[in-house]
Amino acid sequence: xxxxxxxxxxxxxxxxxxxxxxxxxxxxxxxxxxxxxxxxxxxxxxxxxxxxxxxxxxxxxxxxxxxxxxxxxxxxxxx
Length: 79
Known about the structure:
The protein is an alpha+beta fold. The chain is 30% helix and 18% strand.
């Protein structure tokens, strides 16, 4: 399953050059991973009942160019 989400780069996600920071990129992917886990039935409420957790072990981020302020980007994740 592939999950994609469009996102417009906000002011608090950029550095002094108006480029999205790596920290902001990582946060956006963690948010997307959370949505993805909900959609495949492994969200917080389900895992909590089972006393399980999930976490991001590794991120592979491929960017052709660094996103800039107010640009529209598409993030995707898959299982």
